[in-house]
Design goal:
With 353 residues, this protein is mainly alpha-helical. It has 18 helices and 3 strands. It is globular, with a radius of gyration of 20 Å. The mean pLDDT is 94.
């Protein structure tokens, strides 16, 4: 797609009236729970944000996003010490990504600088996880070094193998961040296949899956984590969170002239924004069904006794919590601005892009 076609696509999408139905019934009995330590966590998160950001306007925007609620809904069963680390991880990931992904991010239009940023991040994460000793010359970007406390916590809780899995998902996220930025700077729009290939990395959901064991203080056998059935569970978790996010962040992204979203890409096929939304909702329902099938198959194949079954069930529950928690947070966070959007009697959302 040529640059002028990209501009035209944005023009077609903006100012259209759209409707997103209530997505909660699609998740069935995947109840969105909130960690009982949310109030205490909000104090901790606000203090963390105040340490990270001096600009009053930017600090206010970060607090409005409510990262404490994000962590408390994604990981509602975590004990407070784990929850605190998970909230720091969420903050680190969002702030790291905004440097590249947001329209006014410091590296949004600096591909070479963003590449150094990504390379330094992988090296620093690897160093923080005690997987390789790196020497860093000069000061690293502050958004990178904020991973330090997260790395220390993972070193205490995770085996070398678990830390390697985490690092591999960080590396995949970085590679897909590179491809997405390349496409954006070339003023091209992805095909549907290109989009999904990239989105499964830029969503960072696989990294979240790699934190489920940390949340529940689990240590699943290597053959379970490396199995096709476990990967199927991670894949569907990723698709569910990604579609939900693309639907509910659409208005925000178009305001920033962003087209790295499922809806614009489906619009090119459907020639209708509402048709693209309806297709995404149907795809979401199909992914939930596949998730449940994958969960049943995973537990059936790898349970060996009552204890192993409980561990597998907890892992599945952790992935479900990521999905339901993401939906709950997305609907109320100030980051997407849906809190004041008109809803109908079925709790669907009506708004103008």
């Amino acid at each position: 797609m040529l640059a002028e076609d990209r501009v035209q696509l944005l023009r077609h999408l903006k100012n259209q009236h759209v409707y997103i139905p209530d997505l909660t019934p699609i998740l069935g009995n995947w109840t969105a729970n909130v960690n009982e330590s949310l109030s205490l966590l909000r104090v901790v998160v606000d203090e963390k944000l105040e340490d990270l950001e001096d600009d009053p306007a930017k600090l206010a925007a970060l607090k409005k996003a409510d990262f404490a609620l994000f962590a408390a809904t994604w990981w509602p069963s975590a004990e407070f010490e784990q929850l605190k680390v998970l909230s720091y991880f969420a903050i680190w990931l969002f702030l790291w990504d905004d440097e590249i992904d947001e329209k006014h991010g410091s590296l949004a239009d600096d591909f070479d600088g963003a590449q150094r940023y990504r390379q330094h991040t992988i090296a620093f994460v690897e160093h923080s996880l005690s997987l390789k000793n790196h020497r860093f010359i000069g000061a690293l970007h502050p958004k990178i070094v904020n991973f330090d406390s997260i790395g220390r916590a993972l070193c205490l809780a995770y085996t070398v193998e678990q830390r390697k899995v985490f690092l591999s998902e960080i590396a995949f996220f970085m590679q897909m961040s590179k491809e997405e930025q390349e496409r954006r700077m070339q003023n091209t729009v992805a095909s549907l296949d290109q989009y999904w290939s990239c989105r499964l990395g830029t969503s960072a959901v696989y990294i979240g899956c790699a934190m489920v064991e940390f949340c529940y203080q689990l240590r699943l056998p290597s053959q379970v984590l490396k199995s096709h059935k476990m990967r199927a569970l991670w894949d569907e978790t990723n698709v569910i969170v990604s579609i939900t996010n693309d639907l509910l962040s659409l208005k925000k992204e178009l305001m920033n002239d962003g087209l790295d979203n499922l809806i614009p890409i489906l619009y090119l096929q459907k020639a209708s924004v509402q048709g693209a939304i309806d297709q995404s909702v149907a795809d979401l329902a199909n992914s939930v069904r596949r998730f449940d099938e994958a969960a049943c198959q995973l537990i059936k194949e790898f349970r060996t006794d009552a204890a192993s079954e409980v561990n597998l069930q907890n892992f599945v529950k952790g992935c479900r919590n990521n999905c339901s928690g993401n939906l709950h947070w997305s609907l109320v966070t100030g980051r997407y601005g849906l809190g004041k959007v008109t809803r109908d009697v079925q709790n669907g959302l009506h708004f103008v892009l």
